[in-house]
Structures are given as C-alpha cells and as structure tokens.
C-alpha cells in the first residue's frame, strides 16, 4: 500500500484511493488549524501543493485501475466514481492489479 505515492505509474484499488483522500483532507485540516490561511502562510501553501500532487498521482493510478487515462480525474465529480467503481480484473494496459 502507498507504493511510490508521488508517481503516476501503476494501479491502486478503491481502499487505497479512499485512504489517500482521507490523508489529503486530514493534512489540509491540520494545516488549516495550525498554520492558518495558505494566502497568509507560505509553509501551508507548500504543504498544500505537496498534498495536491500526492492526490493527483493517486487519482491517476486509480484511473489506471479502471482502464482510463489519468486525465479522466479532471472531470468534475469523477472522484466519486473512482471511489465506487470496481477495477479491471487481471492485467490491463497500465499493469497488474494490486
């Protein structure tokens, strides 16, 4: 689980994707409470960028698991489908399932 979280290659399942969302939201909440607004605190802005990159890479891997390009995650509310859709069984063009 969480093998190479900052790379978009490979596939991840629903559970890892949902955990990634929770990590993103938890990290954002902790930073917001402790550091204040990202527009007023540069450290929060940097952490937020890292969290967004993490989430985009995990989203791309989840898209790969259902046989789509990572660009599909840019469709509004597509993340909901990523949380509920079953991944492709067996190997697809993005590799073996986890």
UniProtKB/TrEMBL annotation:
Transmembrane residues, as ranges? 12-35, 41-57, 69-85
Keywords in UniProt for this one? Membrane, Transmembrane, Transmembrane helix
Q: Which InterPro entries match?
A: DUF805
- What residue stretch is flagged as signal peptide? none
Provide a GO CC annotation, any one. Answer: plasma membrane
* UniProt xrefs under PANTHER family: BLR8105 PROTEIN, INNER MEMBRANE PROTEIN-RELATED-RELATED
Q: What is this protein called?
A: Uncharacterized membrane protein YhaH, DUF805 family
**Organism this protein belongs to:** Xylanibacter ruminicola
The upper taxonomy is: Bacteria, Pseudomonadati, Bacteroidota, Bacteroidia, Bacteroidales
